[in-house]
Write a sequence for this structure.
């Protein structure tokens, strides 16, 4: 079964924005067959039909419907089908610091999770203009559903980070520095930076930038606001600096987002 700390870290990483979903795919392996490969990115595996063993180094888990399995990146993995029927699963590939192989029981919510996963697979193949926004909505629903299975997430000092994340998410357009956050939390600046890195894998300023750009991306795709207006809304008075920062972190410039989203 899963180590509680691993599950806690997974949920906290998603809530903080440090778990970034890349794509969702459906995979099918024929009965009595096996699949060997080296993982290129981390994945959340959701078995849909059949049974298989997942072997990774000296660890082995039974994969079957009703479980979620965390697959770490840069690891040799072997999937061996045990059942007489094909083994089918859905992988959500994401970016997250490396964690050990672990599993989580989700049998109570499997039917609801399955519907969300199928929609994520469809969206991953889609070319519709609001694809990213819809993927974010469906992913949020899935993680909310998964977290309902884990109501007790006690991690020492996480409350400090959680409260600051909530504050940043509601005041991201304001000026921020480490001293202000330390004052709000009533702790030393060095501890704020340490705790943010521990629970989100980001420093506070990096979390703020990522959150601002996430909001900016949604505004670019869903509104007709000028780029300079969006820059100011998310906390950047200099829209040239905003555009450079956006391209550095998102990979394309704001105007290119507009060009690929003609049906806002």
């Amino acid at each position: 079964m899963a180590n509680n700390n691993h599950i806690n870290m997974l949920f906290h990483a998603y809530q903080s924005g440090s778990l970034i979903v890349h794509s969702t795919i459906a995979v099918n392996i024929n009965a009595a067959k096996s699949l060997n490969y080296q993982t290129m990115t981390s994945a959340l595996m959701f078995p849909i039909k059949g049974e298989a063993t997942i072997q990774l180094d000296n660890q082995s888990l039974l994969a079957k419907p009703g479980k979620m399995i965390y697959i770490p990146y840069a690891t040799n993995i072997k999937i061996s089908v045990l059942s007489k029927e094909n083994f089918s699963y859905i992988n959500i590939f994401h970016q997250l610091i490396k964690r050990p192989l672990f599993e989580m029981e989700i049998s109570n919510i499997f039917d609801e999770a399955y519907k969300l996963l199928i929609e994520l697979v469809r969206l991953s193949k889609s070319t519709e203009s609001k694809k990213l926004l819809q993927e974010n909505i469906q992913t949020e629903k899935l993680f909310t559903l998964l977290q309902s299975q884990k109501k007790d997430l006690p991690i020492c000092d996480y409350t400090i980070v959680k409260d600051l994340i909530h504050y940043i998410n509601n005041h991201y357009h304001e000026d921020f520095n480490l001293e202000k956050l330390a004052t709000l939390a009533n702790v030393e600046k060095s501890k704020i930076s340490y705790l943010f890195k521990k629970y989100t894998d980001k420093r506070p300023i990096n979390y703020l930038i990522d959150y601002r750009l996430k909001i900016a991306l949604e505004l670019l795709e869903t509104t007709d606001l000028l780029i300079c207006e969006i820059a100011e809304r998310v906390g950047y008075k200099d829209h040239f600096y905003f555009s450079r920062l956006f391209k550095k972190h998102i990979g394309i410039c704001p105007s290119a987002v507009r060009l690929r989203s003609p049906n806002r």
User: Anything to note?
Assistant: The radius of gyration is 20 Å. The chain has ten helices and nine strands.
